[in-house]
Design brief:
By secondary structure, this protein is mainly α. The protein folds into two domains: 46 residues; 47 residues, no CATH class. It contains five helices and no strands. This is DUF4939 domain-containing protein.
C-alpha cells in the first residue's frame, strides 16, 4: 500500500509541473504585441499610445556674411564652427563644409576663396 501512495503522489507532482509549464508558456507574450494592439486603428484614439519621442536637432543661426573686413574674421569662424558642429548631417565631406562657408562670403573674402573652389 505504501508503494501505491508514492506512485499517486508522483503523478500529482507531474500534473502540477505540467500545469506550471502551461502557465509559463502563456506568459511569453511579447510586449511589442501589446503595444501594436494598443496602437491598432480600431482602438479609440483616447486609448492609443503616444508616438515614439524623436529628439529634434538644435537650431542655430547661420554664420554672418563675411566680406573680408579686418577684425570680423574671428567672429565669422566661431559662428561657422558652431553651425558645422551642431548639425553636421548635411556635410558629407570637407568640400561640402568649405562650399557652405564660402556661400557666406562676399567681396574681397569671396574673391580670395574663389580660386580654391575653381580647382575642385
Amino acid at each position: 500500500m505504501a508503494s501505491s501512495s508514492k506512485g499517486k503522489k508522483k503523478s500529482v507532482d507531474t500534473s502540477k509541473i505540467a500545469q506550471v509549464e502551461d502557465q509559463m508558456a502563456n506568459l511569453t507574450v511579447s510586449p511589442s504585441d501589446s503595444i501594436r494592439a494598443a496602437n491598432n486603428n480600431d482602438v479609440p484614439s483616447a486609448f492609443q499610445l503616444p508616438p515614439q519621442y524623436q529628439p529634434r536637432a538644435a537650431r542655430v543661426n547661420e554664420p554672418p556674411i563675411y566680406d573680408g573686413t579686418p577684425g570680423t574674421l574671428a567672429n565669422f569662424i566661431t559662428h561657422a564652427k558652431i553651425c558645422i558642429n551642431v548639425d553636421c548631417s548635411p556635410f558629407v565631406n570637407e568640400i561640402s563644409k568649405i562650399c557652405f562657408l564660402c556661400s557666406f562670403m562676399l567681396g574681397h573674402a569671396f574673391s580670395w576663396a574663389q580660386p580654391f573652389l575653381d580647382v575642385r
